[in-house]
Amino acid sequence: MKAVLRRLTAFVLLATLLAPAAWAAPKEDFKKATSPGLVAAEKFTQITGVAISPLAGVGGIGAYKYWRAKPEERPGLTWYAQPWFFLPALLVVGACVAKDAAGPVVPTSLKKPLDLLELFENKASGIIATGAVVPLALEIFEAVKPGSSAGLNLAGAHFAALDLAWLGDLVMVPLALLVYAVVWLFSHTINVLILVSPFTTVDTALKVLRGAVLGSVVGLPAISDQAGAVWAGLIVLVSLCVAPWAFRTTIFGTIFAWDLVSRRKHWWTPKQDCVWAFSACKLGQAPHRAFGKVSRNPQGELSFTWRPWLVFAPRTETLPPGNYVIGKGLIHSEILRVEGEDAPDVFNLPPRCNGHEDAVATALGLREVRPVGLRAFWAALKSLFTGQAATA
User: Angle CA(171)–CA(174)–CA(175) in degrees, nearest 5?
Assistant: First the structure.
């Protein structure tokens, strides 16, 4: 697995640096003159590749545009084709690839902070790369405009002054942004899963998957533009299908990462009547990892209020009666429902709640706080030698 990861990361780095060369081969001028559909397929694949790895995609395309341009044309190139952007971008990409290649030999205590930094880097570069998607989308319409202008020209119907060519841009840009958003969301979810995974083998498998997908998007257009576009379309289709799950997972990872980086538990104060949490299982209509507020309703029952996609009308689910307790973990705590010998997770509390478990239990009217995970193991070990109770 280590050898495969090293070879794959080396291939991805090389492919990233040479990606625009594969996307814009020497026959580009000929294709633009003879087959606008091939150019549209190229740009569609480029947008998909940029969404998978925003900094690598935009930096690579910008470097190639700068290299292909004549010296007198370079000052007028777009912002991502200027050395002040693509050189630092490719250096950051190289550092991330080197980190992944050395991942199996780097201690977890050092690797996880680096994964955390990469998570925020991917968020920032995803926002920055959005500015490059719009000109790529406009290039798609410019490529197909010669074939569509006849359909948009209403001169034959005595509407010579009416030009609807702008409708192409109006449709193409939102469509390209939608493709970019759903693919980036799916790709970013892999970064979140890498961060929250406690197992090195799982981290390696996820990074291999991400590298393989990126390598295939870069490599297939070099063989066939049509094959590259079809593969990119399949990636977009899968991304659309898993978009709700990917969105919830991204919110989950973002809030956890922010709480850890900002050390929010030291300056956060729990509310007196509710607590924000993520559902750890399906609760009525609330899916897994829905983000919302846990509180007591006027009838004294535990309830969960959440918003689909965080913006739609709020929905409330009443929890079934049972013995609910706070599980005090090392990284984050939980709300459990005790069912005999079992205590399944019902909610995951964000890291800001660490150290405030008693206050959260008081706010929700829960009577018990017990250690879980590594804390439970340490409490049991401590009780073995000291005779103290293993649960709080």
Answer: 80
| Residue 64: Cβ-neighbour burial (10 angstroms; 0-12, 13-18, 19+) | buried
| Adjacent-strand bridge partners of 304 | 294, 317
pTM: 0.74
The fold of the 266-386 domain, in CATH, is: PH-domain like (2.30.29)
Q: Rounded to an integer, what distance in angstroms lies between the CA atom of residue 215 and that of residue 181? A: 20
CA–CA separation, 52 vs 144, rounded Å? 25
Q: Are 354 and 325 in contact (CB under 8 A)?
A: no
Report how far residue 301's alpha carbon sits from residue 310's, in angstroms, rounded to the nearest whole number: 24
96-125 pLDDT tens trace: 777 766 665 666 666 667 777 778 788 888
| Strand 274-279 to 345-348 pairing | antiparallel
CB atoms within 10 A of CB 339: 10
Q: What is the pLDDT of residues 333-373, one digit of tens each?
A: 899 998 887 888 899 999 999 989 999 999 999 988 888 76
Q: How confident is the model at residue 208 (pLDDT cuts 50, 70, 90)?
A: confident
User: Are the C-beta atoms of residues 149 and 156 closer than 8 Å to each other?
Assistant: no
Give ranges for CATH 2.30.29 in the chain. 266-386
